[in-house]
Amino acid sequence: MITFLLVIHNEKARNKLEEIYIQYHRELFITAYTILKDYHEAQDMVQNAIFKLSNNLEKIIEIKCKKTRSYLVIIVRNLSIDAYNHKKRTAYIPFDEIARNGMADNLNLDEHVLRIEESKEIAKHLADLHQPYADILTLRYYHQLSILEIANALEITENNVSVRINRAKKVLKSILEKVGVEYEETI
Amino acid sequence: MKKQSRDERERVDKLNETFLYNMGYEHAQNTCDEVEALLGEYRDIEVPESLNEWFLEHQKQHNKKIKRAIIRKKAVQISKRVAMIILAICIVSAAVTMSVEAFRIRFFNMIIEINERFSTIQIEEKSTIGYIHELPQDWDEFYYPTILPRGYKLKKVFEANNTKYIIFINCQMDELYFVQGPINTDFQMDTENAKVIKVDINGMEGIIIEKEKSNIISWHDNNKSYYIQGNVEKTMLLRIAESLVKK
Fold it and tell me: What does the pLDDT average to over B212-241?
C-alpha cells in the first residue's frame, strides 16, 4: 500500500480516476466483500466498476461528495449482488411476466407526492424490502443515468433495466399505500 | 375515470419525477450511512495489494491509450495539412507548367529524367569515354558524348562539309550516329508517322523524334547544330545529349 501511495502521490497531475480510487477503493472493496464474502471476487467487482468508470468519468462532477460516493457504492453493490445471484443460480422474473402484470409507468404516484418529506423513510423502507430496486430508482432519477447507461454500468440488458425500474415503482406504490394507511390511521 | 389534460399529465409527471429524485437523494444518503457503518464493522479488513497493483497497471494502459488517441488525432490533423499543401503545390505546378512553355519543357524533361533513372539505368554506360583517343588528332573545337548505352563502341569517324560524324555500334550491329555541324547545318529528318516532343538540353531547346525503330534528338546552341540517332530510348538519347563535352 505504501509503494502504491508513493507512486500515485508522485504524479504531478493526478487524474480524476486516481483521486476516485484513492478516496473510495477501500469502501468499494468492503461493500463487495460483505455481499460476496470472497476476497478475489470482491476485487473483481471493484476492478469491474473502476474499468466502467474510466470510460464514463464525465458523469463525476465532484469527487468528495455523497452523490459520487453513493453512485460508486450502488454500482459495486449491484454488480456484486448480480454476481452472487448468478453464483446461486437465482434468476430474476422474466420481462414477459412483468409485462403481463402491467407496466408500472402507468402507475400514478401523484397521490403521494405531498409526502415528499417522508421520502427518507420511504427510501429506507424500499431498500429494506429490496435494495436493488431502491438502487436502480436512485441511478435513474437521482443520478439521472439513461437506461443504456444503467445497463452498461450494471452489466444487464436495457430490457432488464426497464423491468427492474417498473417493478421498483410497483413496490414503491404498494409501500406508499401502506405508509399512507398507517399515516392516516395515526392522525 | 376523468381523462387528464396534457398540462395536468405533465404536472403529475414532474411531481412524480421530483418525488423519485428526492427519494433517490435520501437513498444515496442512507447508502453513505450504511457504508460508514460497514467501514467501522470491517475496519480490520485489508484491501489486497493486488488490487492496487491492478489499478496502477490499468492507469498505465489507460494513459497510453489516451496518448495514442492524442497522437492519432495530431497525425490526422498534420496529414490533412500536408495533403492540402501537396494539393496546392499540384494545382500551382499544373497551372504554371501548362501556361508557361519553358516550365512545361523542364517539367517533361524532369519526368523523362526520373523515368530514365528507374528504367534505363541498366543500359547506361558511364565509362565509355575511352574512345576519345581513337578520334582524329587533327580535330579541334568539337564535342563528344561521355555517356553511351551499354555495349556501344566507336565504329567510324569522319568529317564532310564541316560536319563531323561519330558513329558507334553494338554487338547487335545497331548503329548510333552523333553528328555535329555549323549552326546553319540542315539535318534532313524523316518525321512521317513520328511523334515529336520538345525537350530542354542544358538550357537549349531541342526536339526528340520518336519513330518505330529509331529515335532522333536534335538541337543547336549558339555555334553548332547537333543530331543523335539510334535504336535507343529517348531518355537515353537525352542523357547522351546532355553529356556532351567539348574538346
Answer: 88
Which CATH class, in words, describes the domain spanning B126-246?
A: alpha beta
- B68-108, pLDDT tens digit by residue? 999 999 999 999 999 999 999 989 888 877 777 666 676 66
Interface contact B23-A123, CB threshold 8 A: yes
Q: What cell does A32 get? A: 463487495
Residue whose C-alpha cell is 443515468: A145
pLDDT of residue B8: 82
pLDDT for B212-222, tens place per residue?
A: 778 899 998 88
Q: What is the pLDDT of residue B75?
A: 92
Residue B47 and residue A25: Cβ atoms within 8 Å? yes
Length of chain B: 247
Q: Tell me the domains of chain A and their CATH numbers.
A: 1-75 (no CATH), 92-187 (1.20.140.160)
Phi, psi dihedrals of residue A3, rounded to the nearest 5°:
-60, -45
Residue A25 is predicted with a pLDDT of 92
Chain centroid to CA A69: 11
Per-residue pLDDT reduced to its tens digit, A39-66? 899 999 999 998 888 877 888 888 889 9
Predicted local distance difference test score (pLDDT) of residue A27: 92
Contact assessment for residue B39 and residue A163, using Cβ atoms and an 8 Å cutoff: no
Interface probe for B, chosen from A108, A131, A138 (most Cβ of B below 10 Å), is A138
CA distance B93 to B233: 27
Task: State how far the Cα of B200 lies from the Cα of B209, in Å rounded to an integer.
Answer: 14
Nearest by CB to A21, from B19, B32, B55: name it: B55
Which stretches of A37-65 are DSSP H helices?
Answer: 39-54
Element (H, E) at B147: none
Q: In what order do the strands lie in the sheet with B153-160?
A: B153-160, B163-169, B175-182, B224-230, B215-220, B204-210, B195-201
